[in-house]
Amino acid sequence: MPDDARAHGPAMAFETRLSQLGRPAKRAGKGTVNVPLIRASTVTFPDCATLRDARLRRLDQYGSYGIHGLATHHALEDVVAEIEGGDRAAIQGSGLAAIVVAMMAYLKAGDHCLMPDSCYGPTRNLCDTLLAGFGVETTYYDPCIDEAGIAKLIRDNTRVVYTESPGSHSFEVQDVPAISRAAHARGAKVLMDNTWGIHHFQPFRHGVDVSIQALTKYVVGHSDVLLGSVTVKNAEWPAIKNAQVTLGQYASADDVWLALRGSRTLPVRLARQAESAMTVARWLEGRPEVLRVLHPALESHPQHALWKRDFSGSCSLFGVVFQPRYTMDQVNRLIDGLDLFAIGASWGGYESLVLPTTGTLTRVATSADLGGPAMRLHIGQEDPRDLIADLGAGIAALDTPFTALED
Ligand SMILES: *Cc1c(COP(=O)(O)O)cnc(C)c1O
């Protein structure tokens, strides 16, 4: 893929590179700003020699069939690799598919996997059902584990040490460099779900071998497409590419094109929504009804120092734990009454979302009790003053007896 931005090297700002990468070269005379949407299963060749040549050359680059992706896919691969600071990225039809590709690339019967207890729920399900059935054993570990602690859990057959930081719903920040050192000392690969970190956590600078993102979230950014990615340095590319194609993983070119469109505004959306999220989080933290706000960028967060050391920023997803004197029923009522926050899974779009947390978490190595009834907020593009007003009305009603509200 010809692009002027790569030629200039990484000296330019992230925003500049994201704006320039994965586009038809300025001087190629193609006449469009954006890479065309190429939908294709079949790729045709003028003669047998050209077909043979395409296969012998880098199959994955030129493509002799749709499964390998064509120019639209390659453009998004370049953009995602740029976002995460990797060499190559493979695109899948969902974030969960990306997790499956990465895990299947490294695990086989008889292997052992270490998984943080705070992992994304469907990742746990993959380990406990399909991978267990294939003879892969998983041990869940406390996400706040230190280097010596994880070293003790690593066995001779541990092939994958998985990380996800911050943790799903409970938002523990992991010491990824320490965990990576322990894993590499025993020859295990470090996989990471970096969906929250986006580009604020640069996985390959912290020892990660394979980084997974749900592009569905911030890269797509408009809650209308599911996509995932597995990003690596060159050394891991053959393993990932093989798993990707062997598992028949493919993403629709239309969806890929929409993700490319989303990626162009990622820096401004992320900056604005992260800032609004901090405004709302700080306001919530000041409310007496709130026990704690689970946001790594708040000084009160237990692993704030780790976040500050390893992340260059945050996104707009965080948790709110209410005082234990409230019941989850009361919090559900608060959620039901919000006007600007839709109740729904996923996040990273332009719109605000809320999801009840209590009662939905599975934890086996740590406690699922966050200290009180909890919910998760995703802050969108709305003005934070309006969001605070909406939340404020709901929180003020928390102490109103249920019967009075029914009148
Ligand atoms: C949403 C999400 C996924 C899965 O992404 P989908 O595209 O919805 O399959 C994986 N990991 C994390 C942390 C997520 O938030």
General description of the model:
The protein has helices at 4-7, 14-20, 48-56, 59-62, 71-84, 95-106, 121-133, 147-153, 176-185, 237-246, 253-264, 266-285, 304-310, 328-337, 384-396, 402-406; strands spanning 88-92, 112-116, 137-141, 158-164, 189-193, 210-214, 228-232, 290-294, 317-322, 342-343, 353-356, 374-378. With 407 residues, it is an alpha/beta fold. The protein has two domains: 85-263, 3-Layer(aba) Sandwich (Aspartate Aminotransferase, domain 2), CATH 3.40.640.10; 266-406, Alpha-Beta Complex (Aspartate Aminotransferase, domain 1), CATH 3.90.1150. Helix 9 (176-185) links the parallel strand 4 and strand 5 (189-193). The structure holds pyridoxal-5'-phosphate. Pyridoxal-5'-phosphate binds next to helix 6.
Q: Find the structural class using helix and strand composition.
A: alpha/beta
SSE string: HHHHHEHEHEHEHEEEHHHEHEHEEEHH
The distinct ligands, each listed once, are:
pyridoxal-5'-phosphate
Number of helices: 16
Mean pLDDT: 93
Q: Which strand order does the major sheet show? A: 1-7-6-5-4-2-3
Radius of gyration: 22 Å
Q: What's the story with the biggest beta sheet?
A: 7 strands, mixed
Strand content: 5-15%
The CATH topology label of the largest domain is Aspartate Aminotransferase, domain 2
For the record, the CATH class of the largest domain is: Alpha Beta
| Overall outline | globular
Q: How many strand units?
A: 12
